[in-house]
Amino acid sequence: MSRNVWILLSLCCGLISWPFIAQLLPNNHVIRSPKLKVNLNYILPGKALTINWNGTPIFIKNRTLPEIRSSRLVKLNDLKDVFARNDNLDARSLAFDRNRCADTSCVNWLVLVASCTHLGCVPEIKSNGWNCTCHGSFYDNSGRIISGPAPHNLRVPRCKRRSNLMIIG
């Protein structure tokens, strides 16, 4: 066969197979959203919500006053990681409870990337924090690593609160 016939056959095969190939491409529903808005009215004090944001698990917790008080009593010397790991603050900010909150004006709201900093498991919520059952890491009510093999505190993603909404991203 001549070169022109091969080109014509290749073009025809491409045109015939394009509808099949096009359906495998991501559509607008799959494309990642840069921001996520969560209605905070449905998260009662003491409760946490686990959501999926662009494939990343996120904890949003409405802490009670006793939980905040107990978190404020923890000394930096008792922590494995002394840095806040809060994307809303400077990287050198220390892991005081106030630096782990979503915003200084709403100390009861805690937003955390729900992925253990050891091997990426999703910790389970407990009354006094989060426990990663995979390898035994324990995080307090501020998401700071207290014990176990995890090297860092749970990260606080970029977020801000607008009245009854938490905007993540």
Automatic annotation (TrEMBL):
It comes from Candidatus Hodgkinia cicadicola. It is a single-pass membrane protein. Pfam families: Rieske. Its cofactor is [2Fe-2S] cluster. This is Ubiquinol-cytochrome c reductase iron-sulfur subunit. The keyword Cytoplasm does not apply. The main subunits of complex b-c1 are: cytochrome b, cytochrome c1 and the Rieske protein. Binds 1 [2Fe-2S] cluster per subunit. Signal peptide: none annotated. It is found in: Membrane. Keywords: 2Fe-2S, Disulfide bond, Electron transport, Iron, Iron-sulfur, Membrane, Metal-binding, Oxidoreductase, Transmembrane, Transmembrane helix, Transport. Residues 71-168 form the Rieske domain. PROSITE patterns: RIESKE (PS51296). InterPro entries: Rieske_2Fe-2S (IPR017941), Rieske_2Fe-2S_sf (IPR036922), Rieske_Fe-S_prot (IPR014349), Rieske_Fe-S_prot_C (IPR005805), Ubiquinol_cyt_c_Rdtase_Fe-S-su (IPR006317). It comes from the Bacteria. It is an enzyme of class 7 (translocase). The Rieske protein is a high potential 2Fe-2S protein.
